[in-house]
Amino acid sequence: MRSVNKLDVKLGRPVVAQDRPLLSGMSLTMAWVENVRLAARTLWANRLRSLLTMLGLIIGIGSVILVIALGVGAQQFVRAQFEGLGTNVVAIFDGGPRTRGQQPLTVADVEALRTQVSAVKQAVPLAYGNARVVRGSHDAQTQLAGAPASLIQTLKITFLKGRYFTAQEIDGRARVVILGEGTSKKLFEFDDPIGQTVLVNDQVLTVVGVTKSSFFGTWVDLDRGILVPLPLALENFVPSNSPLGQRIGAAILEAKPEANVDAVTFEAKNLLRQRHQVTDQEDFTLGNIQEQIDIFNNIALGVTIVLGLTAAISLVVSGIGIMNIMLVSVTERTKEIGLRKALGASEGVILTQFVIEAVLISMVGGIIGVALGGGLALAIAQVAPLKPIVTLWSVLLAVGVAAGTGLFFGVFPARQAARLDPIVALRSD
What we know:
This protein has about 425 residues and is an alpha+beta fold. It is about 55% helix and about 15% strand.
């Protein structure tokens, strides 16, 4: 077996090892460890240049980690917000693509849905209108929603102050109102609104509660809107008379725990088509929470992919930088390469050494980038309602991309080094 010749030099100069046949797994492992050690020493000797070379990779990997974390966090945030409304809920809105012979959604329709669709646990009618709410010198234009007692049982409404309507207040047409969080701040600023009166379309109502704003005010605006008892809304605030009964704006169906929401959606649609004598396009709009979740998830995924690809452009730029630096390194170390080849190093050994250096520099940059992206995600999570989530697969992907970048862009300079003629290399200045 050929012995190993090493040229030990002072700091800042390369250390060269002679190649030897590798006959065992242990020898192969030791050779790889030696190659990594030599690559690390070479990069450390030129640490400022190495750090500048890593900079683009650090920024690119950090950006990819952060963007993916924001995308995953956005999906979780959307799901949590919708689940706060209930995932077993189907919503039906008055109006649809049909323009002729439109039949309005009525209280009678909601009652039919409650009694004739076996999988429906609760059916909640909602009446919508616009209102001007005045308190002293403050006023606000808001959405008014007339709601029954069953709304609080179907949707998970959180109160900052006060309470929901009692059954007696709703049945008795009590002149009470619940303000959304934004409307309450606009009208009362820092005062406590509970028990105070406001003018709603010039009618005096007493505030009994303030709802906490929800990210998705899809059915009732819990931020800038107001709630009043449904009978009061139909009689005083919302035009509701129609030849077919009291007209409403929407209905919320709560499915039974064991029921399939898609099945409820299908049965409700067929029943309303029969009642409204629809043969082509519906005069109502129907959807469920899961459909909304899927739509927002797809949007979040699309935005994440676009932003991720944009951030990945910097990885290509950093890869080109790695290739340039490695080509410079080949030029600077021409004599070293010539000496190693003269001592018996094969082209494969030279190629491996330079590829390891390129991969090492990209791996170190990738690890720093992962730490940077993860740190920024944690910082954002401390101050924003949307919590970025760093996943294991995104970290593994980032590290893999970093290693692949070094491998891909390091092969060409390594091949240039491996093909140098040792005699020409030793004669170079």
